[in-house]
Design a protein that fits this description.
It contains 13 helices and 5 strands. By secondary structure, it is α+β, with helices and mostly antiparallel strands. It is globular, with a radius of gyration of 21 Å.
Length: about 325
């Protein structure tokens, strides 16, 4: 981490630090998260990142560079307590518009999460903003749709509520679950969008996405990102211990990850993919039940079955009923 302190007067960035409520703790984490995201995603490896707030710069840029703009610059202006700041990424070489848009979306998602926590905004409203923006990322990178991301979040919430999770934990689950596949940004388009069955070698590469997602989201001071990192890492683990990446078994798998696993598989089956057509709702339900005690926790499958009408309603509202 590079700090450049121009003029602080009586103010010190090391005073009154208390969790993510302190703006400078947030700025440090924002910088690190975007740095990790670009490392895994961007094809243009030569770049520099900086954040300017008040008279302080975090990162590799100098003050003059924050005012310079070209096609290879990404900027996100923000406000905190009526003071303006700017997050800036400068690439050495040309960056295509889709890649640029995806990186900007990730930058904005983290800021929205900070705002929702720091200003105690309505979590559902903030959640929708983040999910809709994340939809742009997923639609640009794979055959998945933004509706799938929203549907997984809603289904996970329904299952978690019936399981008995408290309101705070449910809201965190709903906010974190859309990030379960964020690691796919580190997988090549040729594999993500292959219309045929993956080879064994390609599938081994695909299986890296939980760890990539975890590395992007880990070590956060925010509970949402902490849970999101664990969901990303564990949502392909199976109840019988034959999942990946670690072969975790039963309750050794985080409950939130076990819930998202069912929501993700069910919803993915009922939507078109580049390699297959969508299954009917009934066929997907039968498939989930066939894996009770195998891939999925038996209790969660029972809860899934008890809430099918609510789940179907959600999918209908999102236009996903086949």
């Amino acid at each position: 981490m590079i700090f450049k302190q121009f003029y602080l007067g009586k103010f010190s960035i090391f005073s009154n630090i208390h969790g993510f409520n302190n703006i400078f703790v947030f700025l440090e984490e924002w910088y690190e998260k975007v740095k990790m995201f670009i490392k895994y995603y961007s094809l243009v490896k030569e770049h520099r990142i900086g954040i300017k707030y008040r008279n302080i710069i975090i990162g590799e840029l100098n003050e003059k560079e924050f005012k310079e703009t070209n096609v290879n610059t990404i900027k996100k202006e923000f406000n905190y307590k009526d003071e303006k700041g700017v997050f800036c990424v400068k690439f050495k070489y040309d960056i295509n518009p889709i890649e640029k848009g995806i990186i900007l979306t990730f930058i904005e998602n983290i800021y929205l999460s900070f705002v929702s926590n720091n200003y105690f905004l309505d979590m559902y409203k903030s959640h929708k903003q983040i999910v809709y923006k994340l939809s742009d990322v997923i639609e640009a990178r794979s055959g998945e749709t933004g509706a799938h991301v929203r549907s997984v979040a809603e289904i996970a919430y329904i299952i978690g509520e019936s399981y008995g999770l408290d309101k705070e934990r449910l809201n965190i689950l709903k906010l974190a679950s859309p990030l379960h596949d964020i690691g796919k940004i580190g997988i090549s388009d040729a594999i993500l969008n292959k219309p045929d069955r993956l080879t064994d070698e390609e599938f081994e590469i695909m299986k890296e996405h939980p760890v990539i997602g975890y590395n992007i989201l880990k070590d956060s001071k925010w509970k949402v990102f902490d849970i999101a990192a664990k969901i990303a890492l564990q949502h392909h683990e199976k109840w019988n211990g034959k999942g990946y990446p670690f072969g975790l078994r039963g309750e050794n798998i985080l409950l939130e990850a076990r819930i998202v696993s069912i929501a993700d598989v069910f919803d993915a089956l009922t939507q078109d993919r580049v390699y297959r057509k969508a299954w009917t709702i009934d066929k997907a339900i039968d498939y989930i039940n066939s894996l009770k005690g195998v891939d999925f926790e038996p209790k969660l499958v029972e809860i899934f079955n008890k809430n099918l009408e609510k789940i179907k309603k959600i999918k209908s509202e999102l236009g996903l009923i086949k």
